[in-house]
Amino acid sequence: MARQRGTRRLLGLLGRMRLSLAVFALFVVMAVTGGLILRDTLLQNAYESNTALSRYYASETDSNLVTYEALLEFGTASIEARVYEEQPWDSIEEWANLYCERLRTVLGNENINLYGVVDGRVLAVGVPDLGEGSDPTSRAWYQAATERRGEPVFTDVYEDAITGEPVVTVAEACTGVDAVLAFDVYPESFQFRFATSDLPEGVSYFLCDSAGVPLYARTDLDPAAVAPYLADLVSRIDAGEFEGHDANLVDSRGERRAVDYTRLSNGWYSVVTTPYSLILGDLNTVYLVFVAMGVAFLAALAVMGVRDWRRTRAMERTNETVRVLGNSYYAIYLVNYDEGTYEMIKGSDYVRDRIPPRGPYPDLLRTASEVIEENTFREFEESFSAENIRSLVAGRVRDYGGDFLRKFGERYRWVNVRVLYDESLAPDEVVLCFREVDAEKQRQLRERHYLEQALDTAQDSLESKQAFFNNMSHDMRTPLNAIIGLTELASRDTADAGKTANYLRRIDQSSHQLLNLINDILEISRMESGKVSFASERMDLAQTLRDAIAPFEMQAREQGKSFSARVDAPDPWVLGDPMRLSQVMNNLLSNALKYTEPGDSVSVAVTQEDRGDVGSYKIVVADTGIGMSEEYLPHVFELYAREQRFGTAQTVGTGLGMPITKSLVTQMGGSIEVESTLDVGTTFTVTLPFSPAPPEDAPACAATPSVAAGMPEDGPSLLAGARVLLAEDNEINMEIASELLSEAGVEVVQVWNGQEAVDAFAASEPDAVDAVLLDMKMPVMDGCEAARAIRALDRPDAREVPVVAVTANAFAEDVAATTAAGMDAHVSKPIDFTVLCRTLESLIARRRGGDRP
After folding, report:
1. Which of 237, 627, 764, 818 pairs as cysteine with 823 (C-beta 3.0–4.6 A)?
2. How far is CA 819 from the centre of its chain?
3. Kind and range of the H or E element at 168?
4. Percent of the chain beyond pLDDT 90?
């Protein structure tokens, strides 16, 4: 009996708790379903975000590789033209050497080597061969290039057979001839400018080749673990293990991470991995909260006296949770697409006033048409009709939607609508929800507008550069044509000394014209790549300006033009860069002489405007030449801009002189202004700040221009009988320099690289060598290394003998490098032998007088 009573009591208790147990079971189902949906949504959102991020970085990588592809395409086009023209092999090798030097200059890397196969012959620049016993046609780069002719290809990272360093080969096969051209790029040379600082903490980004060799990594993993980690990751990607939004792995530290990747067109991978702890956040804590709520709910059921209180509290907590989740959406509907009905979970005020909480689904669509533009609504109705929703569910599409403009009051704002499907919902039901995304959408539209603007700017830049290349082709061919034609005329009229001298004079003018064009092109290239440097040294501003003005004053007299110069600088000793200041004056004065006719005048006026802690100096260069039109004046400082006018002779130029001047003046902290009137003249006004130079107890070492300017009038006699050690690896340059120095009475000792120069000097008697001339770039040992080695020899004359750099490396950093190596002066190629002789005379005179220059 007692047992039966207990059973009845238990059944009675369960009967009374039936509703509560049913509510509890429903709560558990909703909590689990909500957690799963939330987790899946978080993973899906992370997948979409990280996939977009990996694609963005992949796009950035492709953009960074465009430079290498463009350079290679230019090379293959050039070599294809030469092979097609059946140029001799020597000519092709000469072109290859020049092209390799240009590659190194443009990419700023002297370790780049060029090689390829032309009609079965190996072409190599910078390396002795392609590896002993190797067939270049069996190399991966050769085979990849020939399979995709006319397209640049990038190999995976591999160990170079000669240097043993990791390297990537960029190769391309010509389409019209049997030729493949390639050059190596060391991974550390790639200039990736990823904005990875915006990555959330803990998120890792990797860029690697198709074998998993890292090219770039932003991660908190141990650097030594990155390579094996990526190799395993890529092998699993290739095996198809990381497809879908829930793809993940456990890293070496036991942390589970989501994996999203993008494969680049060249086979490389852009990979983003995100810790699950970052994606899911405190989701596990939420799960624990729900479990705690369930336990509390069961405890409430056990205590019948507080059942209602416990149940009410649990319902309130549940409603709060649902309200928090629903706050992201202003309207949520449960749609039964089979029955064609809706249930309003949450609705806007406008909709609640027009339709009931439940009803036919077409009524909901009709109400939506009242706040959506007509054209947009037709697409909306088609996309979210009951028939289309049924098709989406049949296709297992869990999340579908888009953005549209909805009317709120008197204005339209962007709204995102989503159809969400999940098996946890009732059969034939989906969730239709609306969320306002106006701020986010407006930001996206702004970003798109900015991207379109950037594209337009890039297109304008491309068109400007194309115009520049067209002009450059004409302007460089003009002096080249003169040099070639006049050389041929001079060779025909060798019997007529007068004609030959005239031809040679004009050849000299054309060669200097071509040199100026090349200098402008190289200078603007360095400015665009941010490689221009400025010195801060003690200089006499007035004397520097007079030295820069002097050649143009002589040129003006020869051309029958009036020239006047006035330099008024009470405080001439300042800190600055004399070379850059001279470059500004050269550009302004050469323009003034270029655009004036005989009888016109050119004037220079320099005044000191301010004598404070930082002095202000104004330079005015005025001419009475052809002037510029009012329409062209705003463009005078733009790259590649040149004014074209009918009836005016076109003067040779690249359109780079004034942009270079503007850039130099701006980087020196100054300003430049221009005033011009057609057929009246032009005036440039430059204002530059200079700090006063501190007093100097002993005279400073002079740069090469000062040495040349300060030589004594009887200097030439010092070269007679002088013994000069000349290191030059180019046979033609060696012949020219030796012949001209010999004409000045110099005994020339020829060596062909830096090591031979050191050995020859070390083998000579003390004080037997009066000076050493070194090229910077030579095989075995370069000029700077040779200078250091000579200075380090254990003999007194090694520290005193004048060492002069005679090189084609003419930039400021090159001068600084030779000075740091212990050289006394720097003479740039093409060599002005008057300057070279004066420099040698001055240095030899100082040495014999006991003073080091």
Report:
1. 818
2. 31
3. strand 166-173
4. 20
**Mean pLDDT lowest among 63-77, 126-140, 257-271, 667-681:** 126-140
Mean pLDDT of 316-337: 76
Strands 331-336 and 269-275: unpaired
Q: Which residues pair with 406 in a beta bridge?
A: 372, 413
853, 802 contact by CB (below 8 A)? yes
Euclidean distance between CA atoms 100 and 120, whole angstroms: 20
Cα dist from 349 to 37, 323, 331, 356, 772, whole Å: 27, 17, 10, 12, 92
Long-range contacts formed by 320-328: CB under 8 A, 24+ apart: 321/34, 325/34, 325/38, 328/435
For residue 179, give the nearest of 72, 102, 69, 71 by alpha carbon.
Answer: 72
CA end-to-end span of the chain, whole Å?
Answer: 125
Cα separation, 638 vs 655, in Å, equals 8
Order of strands across the sheet that contains 358-360: 358-360, 341-346, 331-336, 429-436, 411-420, 399-408
Burial of 198 (0-12, 13-18, 19+ CB in 10 A): exposed
Angle at the Cα of 46 from the Cα atoms of 45 and 47, rounded to 5 degrees: 90
Interatomic CA distance for residues 9 and 6, integer angstroms = 5
DSSP state of 408: E
Per the document, the length of the chain is 853
- Asked if 615 and 574 count as a contact pair (C-beta separation under 8 A), the reply is yes
Task: Show Cβ contacts of residue 468 under 8 Å, excluding neighbours closer than 6 positions.
Answer: 639, 640, 654, 655
Half-sphere exposure of 356 (CA within 13 A, CB side): 4
Q: How open is the CA angle 39-43-45, to the nearest 5 degrees? A: 115
Threshold 0.70, pTM exceeds: no
Q: Cβ distance 108 to 529 under 8 Å?
A: yes
b/e map 744-774, b = 16+ CB within 10 Å: bebebbebbbbbbbbebbeebeeeebbbbbb
270 in Cβ contact with 264 (< 8 Å): yes
Tell me the three state secondary structure of residue 687.
strand
Residue pair 169/112 in contact by the 8 Å Cβ criterion: no
Both tokens assigned to 202: 């803990």
520, 654 in Cβ contact below 8 A?
yes
Rounded to the nearest 10 degrees, the angle between the axes of helix 541-558 and helix 578-594 is 20
SS3 110: coil
Supply the DSSP string of 267-324, one letter for each residue.
S-EEEEEEEHHHHHTTHHHHHHHHHHHHHHHHHHHHSGGGHHHHHHHHHHHHHHHHHH
Q: What is the dihedral of CA 254, 259, 265, 266, to 10 degrees?
A: 0
| pLDDT value of position 705 | 40
Neighbours of 548 (CB within 10 A): 20
CA angle 389, 390, 395 (to 5 degrees): 95
Both tokens of residue 191?
A: 């200039």
Q: Give the type of residue at 482.
A: A
Name the residue type at position 551: P
Percent of the chain with pLDDT over 70: 82
Which one is predicted more confidently, 375 or 601? 601
HEC readout, 7-27:
HHHHHHHHHHCHHHHHHHHHH
Q: Mutual orientation of helices 18-84 and 307-326 as an angle, nearest 10°?
A: 20
The whole-number pLDDT of residue 715 equals 41
Q: Which of 798, 795, 796 is nearest to 786 (CA)?
A: 798
At 109, phi and psi to the nearest 5? -140, 115
Burial class (CB in 10 A: 0-12, 13-18, 19+), 294: middle
Residue 805: is it exposed, middle or buried by C-beta count within 10 angstroms (0-12/13-18/19+)?
A: buried
Cite the DSSP H helix spans in 764-832.
783-791, 796-800, 812-820
